[in-house]
Amino acid sequence: MELSQHGALTDLVGRPVYDRSGDRLGRVFEVRGRWQGDAVVVEELMLGPRGLLKRLRGPGTEARGIPWEAVVEVGPERIVVHR
Fold first, then answer.
1. Alpha carbon of 30 to those of 4, 21, 24, 46, 65: distances in Å?
2. Separation CA 74–CA 82 (nearest Å)
3. Domain 3-81 indexed as CATH 3.90.850.10
4. In terms of pTM, does the model score above 0.85?
């Protein structure tokens, strides 16, 4: 799934994430990616308070990340992932 279809990276922050069965997994706190040429390739969505701790403390803290490959739907109100 390409992000370009869905707007800016910042639009994902704060959006709730659900699995395909409808269970809520948390909210996106951070979007992780890497530069590839002139574009950013999204690699992972960081969720909830653990995502915040990971951002503040760096490596060594546990964080709940969802690989971008697991994203099956990005809607205006939520993100759905395959677990």
1. 17, 23, 17, 5, 9
2. 12
3. no
4. no
